[in-house]
Design goal:
Elements (H helix, E strand, L loop, with lengths): L21 H17 L4 E3 L3 E4 L4 E3 H8 L7 H13 L10 H6 L1 E7 L9 E5 L2 E8 L4 E3 L2 H4 L5 H16 L4 E6 L4 E6 L12 H9 L8 E4 L5 E6 L5 H18 L8 E5 L2 E4 L1 E4 L2 E4 L3 H10 L1
Antiparallel strand pairs: 1-2, 2-3, 4-6, 5-6, 6-7, 8-9, 9-11, 10-11, 10-12, 12-13, 14-15
Helix pairs in contact: 1-3, 2-3
């Protein structure tokens, strides 16, 4: 995981692709131009976008986000796959076989404001919903009532969505542990659009990823965007410090990332989510009170 300055950036960093140095940005733009050429598109490269002859534009920051923190040897493949996906007509649910629909069905955590009329939705906390979605994989489709018809019972679909999340966490998600002298938490990042959705099977995910178990006091979790999951099992006196560190990281990632979900940290116990932070009048606040404060105290 690459650590970058967030303030007082050196002039050696690109003005538009701010996570890249000038050398990296130049190489990245060259790769993007090459990738478009390979799929038969003649494009003009601008500092913040590419533009085809028919006037279609593609934002470079969105493509660059795929390469941020990734070894440069992997960039060509990442860029080529992304360009191929955005220039190829998207598949629809009707194009999938029953087997493909089943393999691509997931429970997904979404921002409630981003979904109009899902066929199934459960409120996890105010502002966040659990829905059923299918990975096409060029895009993700939230299933409507019409889409759900004929696919099986809701109980069967929910269990298949959970099973596919379990397979995801047992497979290729990448893990980075973040720690300092005050506290520690675990950060999971992956290109999958369902990384944050692992929070919907939180206890299982935590045990599979880091071998930890809820000790009866619950787990802190943050889902700043769809590609990140932050968590900390409540297990000792430095949990309060870890909570504040997680809150700082979640707020920053929420405002910087594509696909934002929430800037807050939540306390999850017995599958029940409770919000334990907020931003009031622009000021971050941590709610160490009531049952939550008692759980932290008992874990010490």
């Amino acid at each position: 995981m690459r650590i970058l300055k967030r303030n007082g950036r050196s002039p050696l960093y690109d003005e538009q692709l701010t996570f890249f140095t000038l050398v990296e940005a130049r190489e990245f733009r060259r790769l993007v131009a090459s990738a478009f050429s390979k799929v038969g598109h003649d494009v003009t490269i601008y500092p913040d976008r590419v533009e085809s002859r028919d006037g279609t534009t593609f934002g470079l920051p969105n493509i660059a986000a795929l390469c941020t923190g990734v070894d440069r040897s992997e960039w060509p493949d990442l860029v080529e796959r992304h360009v191929e996906s955005v220039t190829t007509p998207a598949r629809t649910l009707g194009d999938l076989s029953p087997e493909e629909r089943e393999a691509g069905l997931y429970l997904r955590l979404v921002d409630a404001a981003s979904i109009a009329e899902p066929g199934y939705a459960r409120q996890v906390v105010p502002g966040l919903l659990e829905v059923l979605a299918v990975d096409l994989p060029e895009s993700v489709v939230t299933l409507s009532k019409d889409d759900l018809a004929g696919l099986g019972s809701l109980a069967e679909l929910l269990e298949r969505g959970r099973a596919n999340l379990r397979a995801l966490v047992a497979g290729e998600v990448s893990l980075g542990a973040v720690a300092d002298s005050r506290g520690a938490y675990t950060e999971v990042t992956d290109r999958s659009f369902f990384t944050a959705s692992l929070s919907l099977i939180l206890s299982e995910a935590v045990e599979r990823i880091s071998g930890e178990r809820d000790q009866g006091h619950g787990i802190l979790v943050a889902v700043p965007d769809r590609h990140q999951l932050l968590y900390r099992v409540i297990d000792g006196p430095n949990t309060s410090s870890a909570l504040r560190d997680m809150f700082d990281a979640a707020r920053w990632a929420f405002h910087e990332a594509s696909g934002p979900l929430s800037p807050n940290v939540y306390w999850v116990r017995n599958r029940r989510w409770s919000q334990v932070t907020s931003v009031d009048g622009g000021k971050p606040r941590v709610w160490l009170r009531g049952e939550f404060a008692g759980a932290i105290k008992r874990s010490a």
